[in-house]
Amino acid sequence: MEIDPFIFRLSIFILSIFIGYYVVWSVTPSLHTPLMSVTNAISSVIIVGAIIAALSSNDGVIFSSSSIFGFLAIILAAVNIFGGFLVTQRMLAMYKKKKKEK
Amino acid sequence: MSANFSAILYLISGILFILALRGLSSPETSRQGNLFGIIGMVIAISVTFLSVGNFTSGFVYVLIFLAIGGSVGAFIAYKIPMTAMPELVAGFHSLVGLAAVFVAISAFINPEAFGLGTPGNIKLASLIEMAIGAAVGAITFSGSVIAFLKLQGIMSGAPITFKGQHALNAIILISIIVLTFYLCSTQSSNLFWILIAVSFLIGFLIIIPIGGADMPVVISMLNSYSGWAAAGIGFTLENTALIITGALVGSSGAILSYIMCKGMNRSFFNVILGGFGATEQSVGNKSKEQRPVKSGNADDAAFLMKNASSVIIVPGYGMAVAQAQHALREMVDTLKKNDIKVSYAIHPVAGRMPGHMNVLLAEANVPYDEVFELEEINNDFANADVAFVIGANDVTNPVAKTDPQSPIYGMPVLDVEKCKSVLFVKRSLSPGYAGIDNDLFYKENTLMLFADAKKMTEDITKNL
User: Fold this and answer.
1) Which of B81, B118, B361, B425 fits as disulfide partner to B366, beta carbons 3.0 to 4.6 Å?
2) pLDDT at position B140 over 80
3) pLDDT digits (tens, 9 = 90+) for B397-415
């Protein structure tokens, strides 16, 4: 009997939850704010769905009811991707170690 | 590009996202981690472009909208002050939520484009996943908008409660499940719209009863929701990158919520059901108003610190409000020149989001190896000469250790009262968010400095 591909995706999902669990516990508490901004940026990988949606209309029509929602989602996700990664970058650049005594 | 090859590339981008989080285990590796995250995102987007393979005029619009959103995001990222980070994160969460809703709507209207069947005859599993993605996305959106408004001060931070609130919420949650069930059996688009509308409503209702100081839990929780929404959509699109990321973000937010709840010694449900500040307010205030306090000025504070050999600084939300972090660092620099040992003590729930204080201190160029967490530093208070409490309150209240009647009893607190002397910068004697009087104000060795945190810190520096 064949296994439904859904089960494979479910396995990936559940294993990823475990990975997330262990990886996030190892994040140092002083970096919890960058953790939130970076998780926010990576969850915008939902843009993948937005792009498919935006290019979903047929017959050369660019703006159909389904593609408009796709384009809107692209804007939202893009704000998040650029904003999220850049603000994380900006924050992380500020974390410095004590300068060695001269 | 073949579907198998793109699936492998999506997997790689998922792994890069795991490495991005892994990098955050120490500040040294964190910047590299962020780079991994960016590469992962670039791969995911490029693969999608190539696998859709439809480089028509629509594609140009995709790039245009991507550029519009990207420039807005970049602009915000460079302009935003570090003190506004909680609002920013809440705002960003709302965007992820809304994007998930939009993708789900698009997939519902035009399932053929996603390979999910035809309108009115969408595969059952896909429909369930879509409904979950849309509902969780909608809750994330409206919840984050309320959190944003509260953090921004546009909406009062006070909890909004009314009779029958919990019953109403319960009814709405049940109705979401019932709606999903009927949606799957009838494929009716009206039900789909109602489901989304009701989910927007419940997100709104869940967040309004939660007070301003519980925001660390709320932001973490919404962070988690945005992950689950992404995972739901990931199942619909059969996309590994989205499933992995959704699971990572979902568990990350859940862990942060847990850490925040533990920092307040409250259960998750207790926070979510809300109304902490509102219901307990009367208990703490009674008959304690008349006790004497010692108050001093910048000169007294400077004198105390100059004669100290070690000082511990306890920052809180008040420091963020007064933007006092730079002034504080300058004060500390002066202290260090006088060979005084200075360290910083951060309570897990100080500020309005996890790690809020650490970011502000980092912004003010405080080296991160001078900043300590509660467990690391709590024993040092007994050996320190001066504790300088700036903008923190409840997290220093010894009542949490002594009075079982107190609403914050059992909450881990910083043992500030063990210091030889305590300097407490505060605008007035008003109690903190929990409405509880702080015993620390009335201790023999406490000197209250009634002033704006920034101004007081600057004045102390002048007097040092």
Assistant:
1) B361
2) yes
3) 888 888 887 777 888 889 8
Residues in B 178-237 with any Cβ partner in A closer than 8 A: 219-220, 223, 226-227, 229-231, 233-237
Residues 326-385 of B with CB under 8 A from A: 346, 348, 353-356, 358-359, 362-363, 365, 367-371, 373
Mean pLDDT of B248-254: 93
Decide if the complex's ipTM is over 0.90. yes
| Residues whose CB falls within 8 Å of the CB of residue A84, separated by 6 or more in sequence, listed in order | A37, A38, A40, A41, A42, A44, B73, B77, B92
Question: Nearest-CA neighbor of B44 among A53, A40, A43?
Answer: A43
Residue B286 reports pLDDT greater than 70: no
The reported pLDDT for the residue numbered B447 is: 86
> Using CB atoms within 10 A of its CB, is residue B337 exposed (0-12), middle (13-18) or buried (19+)?
exposed
Cα torsion for B230, B231, B236, B242, to the nearest 10°? 80
- What average pLDDT score do residues B314-325 get? 88
Q: Give the Cα separation of B264 and B394 in Å (integer).
A: 10
> Cα–Cα distance between B193 and B195 in angstroms, integer?
5
- Residues forming beta bridges with residue B251, ordered by sequence position: none
What integer pLDDT is reported at residue B290 of this predicted model?
Answer: 61
- From its phi and psi, is residue A54 left (phi > 0), alpha (psi between -120 and 50) or beta? alpha
Quote the CA–CA distance of B369 and A71 in Å, as a whole number.
45
Q: Where is pLDDT greater, at B56 or B285?
A: B56
Q: What is the rounded CA–CA span in Å between residue A72 and residue A56?
A: 13
CB-CB: which of A6, A23, A85 is closest to B21? A23
Three-state secondary structure of B226-281: HHHHHHHHHHHHCCHHHHHHHHHHHHHHHHHHHHHHHHCCCCHHHHHHCCHHHHHH
Q: How far is CA B139 from CA A68, B48, B133, B268, in A?
A: 22, 27, 10, 18
- Determine which helix (DSSP H) or strand (DSSP E) holds B344, and give its type and residue range: strand B341-346
DSSP B423: E
| Phi-psi region at B153: left, alpha or beta (left = phi > 0; alpha = psi -120 to 50) | left
Q: B175 exposed, middle or buried (CB, 10 Å; 0-12, 13-18, 19+)? A: middle
Total residue length of chain B: 464
Interface of A with B in 12-41 (CB under 8 A): 12-14, 16-17, 19-21, 23-41
What is the rounded CA–CA span in Å between residue A70 and residue A48? 10
Q: What is the C-alpha separation between B234 and B218, in angstroms, rounded?
A: 24
Which of B32, B52, B239, B248 best probes binding to A when mutated, by most A CB atoms within 10 angstroms? B248
Rounded distance between C-alpha atoms, residue A38 and residue B444, angstroms: 45
